[in-house]
Structure formats: structure tokens, C-alpha cells
Amino acid sequence: MEFSPLANPLATVAQLETSNSQFDGLPADLEKSIRFAGARLTQAAGILLRLPQEVIAQAILIFMRYWLGPEAGSLHHDPADVVSAASIYLAAKTSAYQKSARSVINVYAFLDSIPTTYTDLSQLPEGVPYVSESTYTTRKRRLFSVEVEVLESIGFQITFTLPYTLCFTYLQALDAFTYPRGQHLARRAMAHLNTGLLSPQFLYLTHQPHALAVAAIYLAAREVGVKLPGVEWWEVFDVDREELGFLVVGFLSVGTFAAEEKKYWGTRKVPMTVAELDEELDVRRVSSGNASLEVDAPQNSSTGVSQSGSPVGEC
Amino acid sequence: MSQMATPVAQPKKGLNRHFVGCSKITDYEMLQKLGEGTFGEVHKARHRYTREVFALKKILMHNEKDGFPITALREIKLLKMLSHDNVLRLQEMAVERPKAEGRKRAILYMVTPYMDHDLSGLLDNPDVHFSEAQIKCYMLQLFKGLRYLHDNHILHRDMKAANLLINNKGRLQIADFGLARHYDEPVPQRGKGNGEARRDYTSLVVTRWYRPPELLLQLRKYTPAIDMWGAGCVFGEMFKRKPILAGQSDLHQLQIIFVLVGSPNTQTMPGWESLPGAEPVHSWQQSPGELSERFRELNPIGLSLLRDLLKLDWRKRINAIDAIEHPYFKTEPLPMREEDIPHFADSHELDRRNARGQKQALPPAPAGGTVGGGPNGQYTGAGPPPSGAHWPNVERGRHGPQDRGPPGAERRGPAGPYDRRSGGYEHRPAAARYGGRGGGPDRGPPGEGRYPAHPPRYGGIDRGPRHLDQYVPSYRDGDARRSRDPEERPRGERRGSHESGHSREGHRDRDDRQDRNRAYRDRDRPGDSRPFGRDRRDGRTRSRSPERRDRNRDRDRDVYRR
């Protein structure tokens, strides 16, 4: 009767294959870019809010899940930055580290003031932009309304089992800490788990935590050069070779994807607000000679998300 | 550019993107309202497709200060994480979208299985008799639920009979996790009591009548032992059919606790003197405790379990693991099997009867009052506590309980119930109070009212004369709304109980009563938070509908006049 606390409800094919943004005519690649940037934004905000990584991970997963939900507004209605703020506000609210709406809004105002999405950390702007009381009130109202939308969209599933502790337990089970580089190995594995959070393939929403933990260990061991048992040890943890292989590729592809994104966007900003999004769509329309919106997109590693490609003619 | 938002493929949306987890309210047929309160209404509803019956709890969003109510969020989160036979399951959430244009705020409901009864309702029902085997069955289920919660680092923090739901299959489930929270400490271990906590938690938890002494003394590093105390109160309540420790203020609560189980000393409650709320206790009369006298209906083993649960020392209070293994559950009569528990009167049947006979529940003591003597004069703890477990019939009621703030004019609403208490407490010879329920002149109509014509018997013992102190009226309204802190929200359930008061003992003059009625009608009854299918008293509306109540009252009045 008691369910496994180690499992998460996973996204279904139907949830993955379409999105409301695509129904709204947003190019799939742009949607993917925005989601990725939004996840990074959430991570950054979490760090600035001094939240533990566990809470940040919950927030990123709430953010990721939001776009898969039935009611999820498209990016046209719900700008990614507000959804990101609502996600982190929610994740913090249910954790032991509640953050006030004011702190969240201030942090997002600061992040918004950074002119480039893929920015050099040494060139961060100085000081925090001032958020006036009226702006604050407006933004707070927006935050709260999006908060409820997020809750609905994710079916109120606000908790996720994260693979971090499992990963650690597995490392112990593998006697990894007896190796001289055991700690390094653990650190790499954790790093991969953090990277996986940002995956445009929604690795955390399509795979159970134990599989993620095993894949992170496998990958980290290869990188660090720690020799794990020669046998198929992952089977002990209920992961088969196929899933392991898929996840390893998935983890690795995040880096590639990020590099492509950085190159594509350069010093520009990934559109997070509705206004920025419209601007971006305009730019694309112009550069493609008003033919279609699917232009100039970086060819990312496939996620299986079909491009809806519905041309938006009139405007 | 905003027209871009007009989706090209809009029609596909509804078709393709419908996933389980959060459904539309239109999937449910609303059947009847089960109750309403500060944090929402509860409806009974049938799912249109599965035909299953659920209880839908509406989440009210008054407090915009922090967005979605944290208590609701906590409860949802916890319920989603939990899965145990003795913990109420959260089926899903349902959304009601206002039909109006634009993005109006949606109304959200928590969908849980419909449970036929809540324990306090059952205990109020004069037709329901619990055998000891049945009590054991329920207690065992309660302990299993608590063991599961505590083992999963969860403190319920609002243990009480009204939060224990029971269905006609003999299943008991713990409900209402609005005050529950994660417990950051090591979980209780077999044979080792409830351990100690290292960090502080808010002490504004647990409905007063079920609040353990350490919380009343403002221990902030509390442990799962607080839930075990509540379980002990529930255990006693199953025999007494009413809350066993119905204090009128936090201080009074502490007094009657010490009267019942004995005054604290360095043996029974090490460290009590250093607790912030300990100061007034020093001046109280020493009490040896009267648990065994008050619970004569319990056999020695049962009494030892009760003693273990109502232990003053929170470190030594029995934990749920050990309670399950207590010899009480291994001696005759053995706990009944769930499936052998008799079906109680069908709810509708019950409801109707109650509508007539106003099976009223006792009012809850709202949580979150301040502790300590009030500035307004009534009992401040100076001097010995009133003798026995009951208050002397002084004019206390007029002032309201001390922790509810001054009885200011701004609280016109609560005046009614407050007053009624004086009705209940004063002016009545002790004999009437004691014998009332046995058929004294002040009883309500025969066969109706809260107390059966024949005092319920447990194991052949007539417990009649030992009931004391039952009609503590409700005084939650008004205050309910005031408290903004979710932790402080009155945990009032089971309102409406005050009516039962007059069925047996109100004989104050009529005008007075009418005033009270008016006061009652005038107030908009905010405090009633009774989630999940409690109190299904009436086929149509709830017994707590003011009109009905007034009708009952009128009828009763006629009876008295006769």
C-alpha cells in the first residue's frame, strides 16, 4: 500500500509532443531556448536568494513541468521570467526557506537588468535596480496569479524526489569513497545531476531519480577515471543498459546544447517577457522575408518534440 | 504584436492537452454542502464518470498577502506525499473557472474520498454505541496512522476527534493536515518515547482541548509526543463520548490537565519549571491526579495505556510504535476487525435525526490563543484551580475566555455563544448538572438531543454521572477571521454545538435567548472549518444552517415551556 517515495510521476508522450506555445505558433526551437534560459534563470535566482540546491532543483522542475501541463499558458501569455519567479516562490514557500515576494521580485529585477543571457559573470551590473512600490504591487499581483496557474498546471505536484541523496547512497554502496578520487567522483556526479536539471529534453521529467543517479555516477566515473566494477553494476540499481545509455547521452548533450545556445544568442538576450518575445518574433519574421517563423534556428539535438511550424501569417 | 497570442490551433488545445491531476469542477456533480468554515466550504460530490462519491474542500483565497495559502499548500503537499490506509487520501484537485471573461481567479477544491462520519460526530450520536473491541480497533488504526506520519517526519499538530474520519467499513483515517509540518528531528524509536527536538517550532498549534501540557507551557522544542497526547484525549473521549479536557482558556486547560493527571513535579515532568509558561502553575494547589477515578470504565490495562498517552513528561510519553504493541490490544476483548464493525446509521438517516435532535458537537477550542491569564479579569491562575475537572459555576462565560482578547463591543457575533455558556454553567444545581442526562427535568425531548435517554454503557458500567463540564459553548467566531497568521487560524470544527446546550440546560429567560439567536443570525459564521465530510447531519443542508438551528431552538423552547 505504501508507495515508493523514490519515484516521481513522469511526463507522458502526449505531454511531451505538443505544447500550448506551439499551438500559439511559437517556433519549437525558440520555445526550447526560452525554457532553457528560464531554467538557468531559476537556478541563478535560487543562488541569489541563497536557497539550497534542493529547493532550487524543485523550482526548476516546477518550472519545467509547468510547460507540459494542460492549462499551461503559452509563452505568449505567461512570460518565462514570471513563471520562473512563481516556481521559485512556490518551491521556497513549501520548503524550510520561505522567501518573501519582495525578495523574489528584487532578485528577478536584478537578473532582468543583465543585458545578456549568456553573460560573463565578471561583467555583472553593479547594484540592484530599484523596484518602486507600485511596480512591486503590480508584479506581486502577477506573481500570485501565475503562482496559481503554475499549481494548476502541474496538478499541484509540488514535490519531486530528487536524485541527489540516492546518488550519494549509490556511491557509498559502490564503495566509491574508498577510492582516492572518490570525493572528486561524487562532486562530478552531483554536477551532472545539476546539469541534467536544465536539460531541454526534460530528463528529470522522463526518468526516475534512481536512473538519473546511476547515469550521473557512470558518467562521472568515466570522466574522473575511477574504475567501477566491471560487471553491469547498474542493474543492481534497477537501471538497464539502454536507459543508462540514453541518459548518459542526455547529460552530455546539455553541454553541447548550451554551447550552441550561447553561440546563437551571443550578446543578445533570450526573450523572457512577452514584449521581448514579440520583438524576437518580429526580427525573425523580417530576416526570413516574412515567409515563416522557422528561420535561422540553431539545430539542436533532437528532443523528439515535433516542430509545429504553424505559420502565423497575419499580425 | 499582441495578436500573436491568438492561437492558430486553438481548438486542438482542449482535445489534446488534458491530463489527470487537476480536473475541472464540471467533472463532479455537487450533491450537498457538508460544512463551511474559515478556510472553505466542503461539499459532497459525485464524479460524473466514475460515479464515486468524494468530499470537495474549497480553498478560500482571502489572504492575498502571501499568494496561495501556505496552509493549503502544505496540506496538499503532505497529502500527496502520504499514502497509508489510515491517512486521508488526496484524490486530486479540481478547478472551477469562473465563466466570466478574462483570466479571473479560479476556485480550487481538494478532492478526497467521502468518509461517512467523523469520530466526534459519531460520539455525539446517541444511537451509536462503541464496544471496547471497537474502540481498540479505532485506536489501533489511529496509532498506525500516527506511526506512519511520525516515521515520515510529519507532525500532525491538530490531533482531535473531529479530525478522525471513519467510514462504514470500519476504517479510520487521519484528516486535516492544515497545521501539519515536517519534523526535522530523528523519528521516535521503539521503546524510547518520542525523543527530543533540537529546533524550535511554533507553539500556536493544536486545538486547545487536545493540546498537551508542554505546549501549554510553551515548550517550543516539541516532538511527536504532542500528537500522542491528542490520541490519549481521543482515547478517553471514546469512553466518555465527549472531550475529556475541555478547558475554557489555555490556563484553565493546563489546570484541568494537572487535576486529571496530577501536578507536575521533577519526576513526572522534568524541566517543567523552566518552561516559559510555568510561572502561574506554582501557585496552584497540588493535585495527586484522578485518572483512575475518572476512568473507572477502563480496565487496568486500558488505564495504563491512557496513563502512558497522557504522561506529562513528553520525553517519556509513549510513542505510536509502542502504543500499537501495548498489551491493551492483546488482551480480551481483542480489537475488532474493521470489517466486523457494525454499520452505523446511514448518514442521511443520521442527518435527519440530527436535524431534529440537533446532535451537536462540542465546539472546538480554537488554537492559537495566547497563553496565560487574560487582562480582563477572569481566571488568571492565581489561587488553586477550581476543584475537580469542572469549573464552578461562576459568571465566567460573560467575559469569554481570557485568551480571546477583551470582550469588546466589536465582537457582537460571539456574544451569543458566550452568553450561552453562562446559561449552561450557572444557575443550575449541581445535581441537575450531574443527573441531567439521565432524564432529569432539564433534558431535551426524549430520544433526541445529544445524550441518549439511556446512558451509553461500556462494559456494563453506567457512566452517566461522571460527565462533567460538557457544554462549553463555541466562541470561535469573530476571532476566527481576525487571525492572519495561518498557524493561528482557529481550528474550529464542529460548530453549532452550542445549540445542544439548551436542549438540556438552558432555561434562562426567553428574551435572553432570542437575543442570542439574533446575535447568532447576525454573524456570518466564519469560523467553521470542517473539512472532509464531517458533520453530514442533514440530507439537504447542514444542521448548522442558522435557520435550522433557530428552528430547533424554537422547538426546544416549546418543549421547555410545556
Automatic annotation (TrEMBL), chain A:
Ranges annotated as biased composition (Polar residues): 298-315
Positions of region (Disordered): 292-315
InterPro entries: Cyclin-like_sf (IPR036915), Cyclin/Ssn8 (IPR043198)
Gene3D superfamilies referenced in this protein's UniProt entry, alphabetically: Cyclin-like
Signal peptide: none
Superkingdom of origin organism: Eukaryota
Biological process according to GO: regulation of transcription by RNA polymerase II
A GO molecular-function descriptor: cyclin-dependent protein serine/threonine kinase regulator activity
Record protein name field: Cyclin-L2
Phylogenetic classification of the source organism: Eukaryota, Fungi, Dikarya, Ascomycota, Pezizomycotina
Automatic annotation (TrEMBL), chain B:
Molecular function in Gene Ontology: ATP binding; cyclin-dependent protein serine/threonine kinase activity; RNA polymerase II CTD heptapeptide repeat kinase activity
Bias type Basic and acidic residues, positions: 393-402, 409-429, 476-562
Domain (Protein kinase) ranges: 28-329
Known catalytic reactions: L-threonyl-[protein] + ATP = O-phospho-L-threonyl-[protein] + ADP + H(+); L-seryl-[protein] + ATP = O-phospho-L-seryl-[protein] + ADP + H(+); [DNA-directed RNA polymerase] + ATP = phospho-[DNA-directed RNA polymerase] + ADP + H(+)
Residues annotated to bind ATP: 57
Localization annotation: Nucleus
EC assignment: 2.7.11.22, 2.7.11.23
Top-level EC class: transferase
Pfam family, one: Pkinase
Any single GO CC term annotated in Swiss-Prot or TrEMBL for this entry: nucleus
Protein name (database record): Serine/threonine-protein kinase BUR1
Organism phylogeny: Eukaryota, Fungi, Dikarya, Ascomycota, Pezizomycotina
